[in-house]
Amino acid sequence: MKKQQIVTVLLAIIVTILGTKLIFAQENEGEKSEAAKTRSTFRLDFTISEMDDSKTLNSRGYTMMLTGTMVGQVRAGSRLPVQQAMSETAPATTSYLDIGQSIDSRIISEQDRYLVLDTTLEISSLAPASSGGDVPLSGKNPVIRQLKARTFGSVELGKPTMISSLDDVSSRRRFRLEVVATKIR
Q1: Is residue 167 domain-resident?
Q2: Are 181 and 158 spatial neighbours (Cβ–Cβ below 8 Å)?
Q3: Which of 7, 41, 121, 145 lies 20 to 30 Å (CA to CA) from residue 82?
Q4: Is 136 contained in some domain?
Q5: Angle (CA) 128 134 138, round 5°
């Protein structure tokens, strides 16, 4: 008799635990689907400006759409083939270098009028063959100039915000990255 009572109590506890887990699982699933429904979509308009002192020499615009915490990527530039000799008996192999601009961005969080962004900017170019010379289009060992910045910061919706500024170490030029975030839905 005592054994029957113990088994009955244990079964009641197990049923209660399993029922509670099922209820929590359903509630969590409901929260997840509700969160997926309410995720906003944002358009991020990036502008990279190349400046010499305070004069803007060049400006390029790039746009990406982001929802949730997905990572948006923009790539603009060229692929430079580079020959690599393996040995005297083996044929040369070709690899490629990406030259140009790359922007990666992810929304960390969303507040009423602000987004917190994690953004990486990379700008690369071929160095001139000599001071004031032309950029070599082929050669054994091209020199690649690179600027890279990673930022975490708050951006007010609808307002241009400068999120990164980089000085080129080989010239008087400065590169600025600005973003305007707009809520689409």
Answers
A1: yes
A2: yes
A3: 121
A4: no
A5: 80
3-state secondary structure of 85: coil
Q: Are residues 60 and 148 in the same domain?
A: yes
Residue 103 has pLDDT above 50, yes or no: yes
Summarised one tens digit per residue, pLDDT across range 11-43 is 566 656 655 565 556 656 654 544 444 478 999
Q: Which two tokens stand for residue 78?
A: 């060229």
What span, in angstroms and rounded, lies between the C-alpha atoms of 73 and 122? Answer: 11
Burial class of 46 by CB neighbour count within 10 A (0 to 12, 13 to 18, 19+): buried
Nearest in space to 46 (alpha carbons), one of 100, 113, 102:
102
User: Are both 76 and 157 inside the same structural domain?
Assistant: yes
Considering the entire predicted model, what is its pTM? Answer: 0.70
> What digits encode the pLDDT tens for the residues 114-149?
999 999 999 998 887 665 555 555 456 778 889 999
Pair 154, 75 in one domain: yes
List CB contacts of 113: < 8 A, sequence separation 6 or more.
Answer: 156, 157
